[in-house]
């Protein structure tokens, strides 16, 4: 009887271990599966550092080859580069083609260097004016229009067709498709985007999420996406976090965007850490990756923010976070930036953050797209 119990326990343990090493797409490319597996492995002791639009532009510059503000300070690009599908719809065909090519090149360049890409989607409202934000006098609650049965569902499929075609175009120098972490409909628990909680029921949002994943994966044969679910920070329990969760079979990564607890509205390290712990614990339980999908402090006036706030938050409890990403450095604005540039007041502290063994940058990664040959970090 005891041996049967031990066998049953061991089988369950092994199954749990296997669950955390595969994405939801049974036909995921080998590189996508390896990225998922290796991020899970690294997150046990490290977190990859990411920066939105890091290599596209920075503080006072734009379009320079192989440049980022993070590299100018540390000597390495971020491990994770954030890009956006914002230009993939709502523009002229010529502008859409130009946007697709620019993002394609960025993703391929990052893949060729050994870095990781995450894709946000500031999706212009497909049925009304107002862009991706909700504007009271202009916007329409588009989710109900674009889900199956909605009057603009065909239009949404056409937009996804463009994303699918793009996904098949991101081939690296090795001839393989570059994997990306796709993070659609982020911060959906707020009211600032048209897909936000005030403008879509729980059922409508879940329908939108499931259709998006199913259409890309099953109809368009997109097999190089890892799907990330990331509300804002408006939760304090697991049940609240999962209120609009579409189900484990539809999500690879769970995360949150949190600026408010990290210095924008208040310094609340314990609160931010508790929310991250909820996410990390759920990821472990469900066989998912966890991440701090967006954060930062605009203009970084706090000279020790990197170690005393960000690093302290992520190390506060026993958590496994695949990556943390700070927002962009605007090329024109003198104040809208979230990563340091040479001479910025937090740069010395950022170097301490960079040198901490817990954080990983692009130079630290070693064969992250090879499961069998993965050597961890340099």
UniProtKB/TrEMBL annotation:
Enzyme class of the recorded protein, top EC level: hydrolase
GO MF annotations, alphabetized: hydrolase activity
Source species, domain of life: Bacteria
SUPFAM superfamilies: (Trans)glycosidases (SSF51445)
UniProt keyword Acetylation present: no
InterPro entries xrefs: GH (IPR017853), GH26_dom (IPR022790), Glyco_hydro_26 (IPR000805), MANB/E (IPR016714)
Entry-linked Pfam families: Glyco_hydro_26 (PF02156)
Domain GH26: 30-363
Protein's name according to its UniProt entry: Mannan endo-1,4-beta-mannosidase
């Amino acid at each position: 009887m005891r041996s049967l119990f031990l066998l049953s326990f061991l089988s369950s343990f092994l199954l749990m271990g296997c669950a955390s090493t595969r994405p939801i797409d049974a036909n995921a490319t080998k590189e996508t599966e390896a990225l998922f597996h290796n991020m899970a492995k690294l997150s046990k002791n490290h977190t990859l550092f990411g920066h939105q639009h890091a290599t596209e532009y920075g503080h006072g510059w734009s379009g320079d080859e192989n440049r980022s503000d993070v590299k100018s300070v540390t000597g390495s690009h971020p491990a994770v580069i954030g890009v956006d599908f914002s230009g993939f719809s709502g523009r002229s065909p010529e502008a859409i083609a130009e946007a697709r090519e620019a993002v394609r090149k960025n993703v391929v360049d990052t893949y060729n260097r050994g870095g990781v890409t995450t894709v946000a989607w500031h999706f212009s409202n497909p049925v009304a004016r107002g862009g991706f934000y909700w504007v009271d006098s202009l916007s329409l609650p588009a989710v109900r229009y674009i889900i199956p049965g909605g009057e603009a569902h065909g239009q949404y499929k056409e937009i996804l067709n463009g994303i699918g075609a793009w996904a098949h175009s991101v081939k690296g120098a090795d001839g393989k498709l570059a994997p990306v972490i796709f993070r659609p409909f982020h911060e959906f628990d707020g009211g600032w985007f048209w897909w936000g909680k005030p403008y879509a029921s729980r059922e409508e949002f879940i329908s939108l999420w499931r259709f998006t994943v199913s259409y890309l994966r099953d109809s368009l044969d997109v097999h190089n996406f890892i799907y990330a679910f990331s509300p804002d920070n408006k939760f304090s329990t697991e049940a609240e976090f999962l209120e609009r969760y579409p189900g484990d079979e539809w999500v690879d990564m769970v995360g949150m965007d949190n600026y408010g607890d990290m210095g924008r509205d208040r310094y609340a390290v314990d609160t931010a850490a508790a929310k991250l712990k909820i996410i990390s614990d759920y990821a472990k339980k469900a066989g998912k990756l966890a991440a701090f999908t967006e954060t930062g402090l605009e203009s970084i006036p706090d000279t020790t923010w990197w170690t005393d706030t960000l690093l302290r938050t992520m190390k506060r409890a026993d958590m496994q976070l695949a990556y943390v990403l700070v927002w962009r450095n605007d090329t024109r604005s003198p104040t809208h930036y979230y990563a340091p540039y040479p001479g910025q007041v937090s740069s010395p502290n950022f170097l301490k953050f960079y040198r901490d063994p817990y954080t990983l940058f692009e130079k630290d990664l070693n064969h992250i797209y090879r499961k069998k040959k993965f050597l961890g970090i340099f």
